[in-house]
Structures are given as C-alpha cells and as structure tokens.
Amino acid sequence: MTDAHKALPSNHFLAMLADNFTSRRDGAFCHIIDNVGEMTLTWADLERGARRFTGLYSANGILPGGVVLIFLRHGPALYGAFFGAMLGGFVPSFMPCLSPRQNPAIYWRSHQTLLDRSEPSAIVADRATFAEMEAAGLRLGAARRLIVEDLATAAAADFDPPPETAIALLQHSSGTTGLKKGVALSYDAILRQIEAYRAALHVGGDDVIVSWLPLYHDMGLIACCVMPAFLGVPVVHIDPFYWVARPRSLFDAIAAHRGTLAWLPNFAFEHLARVAGRDAASFDLSRVRAFVNCSEPCKPATFDRFRAAFAASGMRDAALQCCYAMAETVFAVTQTTPGVAPRRIRVASDSVARGQTPRLVDSGGVELIETGAPLDGVTITIRDDAGNTLPEGAVGEIAISAPFLFAGYDRDSARTAERLIGGVYFSRDLGFLRDGHLFVLGRADDLIIVNGRNLYAHDIEAAIGAIAGIKPGRCIAIGVFDEIAGSDVLIVVCERDGTAGRDPDAMIGDIVAAVHSIFAVTPRRVHVVAEGWLVKTTSGKLSRSDNLARLAGKRTDGSGL
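Given the sequence above, the corresponding structure tokens read:
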C-alpha cells in the first residue's frame, strides 16, 4: 500500500473510490455510448486516467484547492480529469462545451464574467476547444491551459487527498454561462447526501444507472456519476448530443445493460413519449425500478402520457417517481417512495396562492403530484414573505435545512448571505407540505426552466439588450408552460429603438442567434414592438405577467405590434 493510500481514510469518499479501484478493478465503472459506438471504462482504466491527470495538474504547478474548469466532450477523459482533480487535492468543475448549432464567438464571450470571477488555476480542454476560445478573444488570465491530447505523455502521480471538510467541487448548473453561480460543495456534504439518498431510493448492488444527462448539471453529476462512483454501482452514460439525435438509445441501453434507475427532467418524459412511443413494443422496461422525474416541475399529465405510450414495454405505474433537488443541497431534498406511485391531488386553481391552503376538489382545478418526503436529516419549512414559518398546508417559499447544505456560492458572499440564513437555505421555490410530503408549485423569482435548463430571465434580457436596434433596458423574457412540450417555452419581447432604423426581422434573427448561442435554447416566439409598448409596474419595473397578458391580446388592442 502506498503512502497516498494510507492517507485516504481521512476522506471517506476518496477512500471508497480508491477501494473501488482495487476491489472492482476489472469491473465496469462506466459504459460510454456515442455515435462511434460503445466502450467500457473499467475501474482500472479510471484509476490510470485519474493518476495521469493528477500528475498533469501537479506538473503544471496547480496548488492544493486550485479550481480546475473541465471543458471536455463526452468520453473517458471526462472522468479521469474530474476524479484526478479530487484525488490530487484540487477542485474540479464540469463546464458545457459548444454545441454544433451555437455561435462560437458569442458562446465563448459569454464565459468571460465567469472566468474573471472564479480565477481558475487551470482549464482542461482539447486543442480545438482552446482554438475556439482564442478565436473568440476569451481572456483566460493566469489559468494554465492543460491540453487533453498531452495526457498520453503525462506521468502518473500518487494521490494527495484533502480532508473531508475541504471543498470537493464547484457545481455551475444554476444560471447560465458567464452569470452562473458556482455552488461550493464539501466532501462531507456530498457523503451525507449520498448516504441519505441511497437510503431513500434503496440503491443497492443490483442496480444499474442509465443516463444521457450532461455531467455539468447536478442531476447528471451527482445521481449519475459521483454517487455511483462512491457506491460502486455501474453506469451507462450516453452522449447527450447522441441521445437528442436518437432518443430511443436510452431504452436500448436499458435493455442491453439491464438498467434499473434513470433520472429525467419532465420534458424528456414528454419527448420520449412523442418520438419513441410508436416503438414501445420493441423495448423492455420491466426491470426499471424508477424513472425519476427531477430538475423541473413534475407534471401528472406527463406521467400519464409516458405510461400510456410505453404500456407495451412493461412500464409500471410505481416505476414513475418524483424528486425535488438542487445543487445547493448537493442534490435530492425529497424523494417519493420506490415501488409506490406518487400521490396526486386536485386543488382549486383560485386557492393556489402564497399564504393560502389549497382547497381540494374532485374535478377540474389543477392536478398536482407530490415530490415525496424529505430525506433523512432534512427539515423543510414553508415561509411567508417575511421569512416566518407557515402552518402545514399553506403555500409559501420552500426553506431547507440539512446536513448536506452547500458551503456557499463561490466568491459571492452577498448572494450566499441572501439565500443561506442561519443554516437555512431559502430556495425561491413555492410549494406546500401535506401530510409531511412536499408539493412544488414553481419559482418565486424569474427562473425559467426550458427542457431542464435553468435560465434566469434577467440573464437573457442582459444578453440581448446590447443587440443593435433594441432600446436599452426595454426587453423581457417570459417562461410559459407548454403542455405538449412538457416544459416551459421562452418568449422574448423587445422594444425597438426608433432612431436605429433596423429591420425588425433582422433584429429577431440576431436575438434568436444570441439566445441560442449563449443559453443553448431557442425562443419559441420573439416579438419586436414599438417604443413605449411594454407595460411597467407602479414601481417602474417591467411586469412580465402584465406584458404576457397584453401579448395575448395584441391582435385586438391596437397596440401596434
């Protein structure tokens, strides 16, 4: 046993990872599927990759605790770069790579704020990605450029694990590009989350996780990478771009590897029902213990359509589960009971308001589905506008205390103090408790969730506000739930600057290009309106709800759209 291995027990997460390297050596850590085919990454392969990356970091003078941003596409190097950073005492963070449909110049420029704030010690990418950054004029500061193609010549190094109290990783999935907030998670918090979530979901040695989720998102990162690495549960990872082009690949992988667990955002359930439901008889989903709906509000009607579409595949009601989760609590806050269909209720639509207790109805109204009971150690309270605790059943802001809360937002003490108060995290989500189970209604602020991607309206507005011909400060981004899509869709309304003389169609094209290149989302509708069209509140702020209502009546109100 090396000195490095002797030091590992001071960090239980990394000790278990090292033990898996030894005890599961020739077993599969991960099956990787993309448009080239499938390959298996064994635990021995993962250890070799991790040691080489640890050596690469150390050889380049990265100091303990230094932040490493990982811009790598789907493949074996992703895992070695990440776990090699952890095992070497560095702080990794997965970052999204440019998609084929995004404008490189706009996309990379949008990362400048993040880089300036986080001051990473190193950036890991391939040569082509660094060339894109350079062409876009991205300033990397003092960050060392670590080229993944150089890994083959890197010397393997002994691990030098940090203590459990150290920051293990930064999770940047809340927010978008340059305005993302880095959620700092300690090893201790991650360990406590894994133990609580394993118990809630009954994760065991017979499970196989199948996922197409990107690792820069907390659901893919924790549920489908970090947790299985600790527990020794095999994972099948499908390239997200490959899954988008071939959605049935998820079900093919479940059948081929006898998958039992999969996490999906609500929109993915809808998408699969639409595009793969016609082939339901060719799939076998009977072994799946849980398809877990997470990351955006769970919709009962979505489950109904998914179950109906795949009834011929052995789809069971009890396999459709819900979870409420966020990066600030590492991952899961609540989880429905495996093997039991989540509870549904109907409430009068006029009773679902802050401070009220929703009124149950037999028909009509709004159907809601529970997200489950709190994980072991988690306390959920519902708060009013002043932060006071409301009685069970009343609607308010969901506030969370747990043994696995985040350490704070990276280099953002003001935002941390605003959201983490006295050991309680104020989520900005609205919901209520009924018989100890949580029902989530939606966001209290301006978060828009499009196909599982978190978008803040003010981020979008800031990104498009500089486009030529748009009146500064006079644009709004609105999220509207689309029942068919199973997710919010994005609507953008901007006032044009009458002095600019630009063609509105050209401006719309620029808006669509900017939003897609920066946020990887295409607006459903973009409206360029006349100066003075947008409605303000009495306090002088643009009102999203009032403008959405005006937009709905634009053909009859003579507004000059």
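The chain is about 30% helix and 25% strand. Try to locate this feature in the token string yourself.
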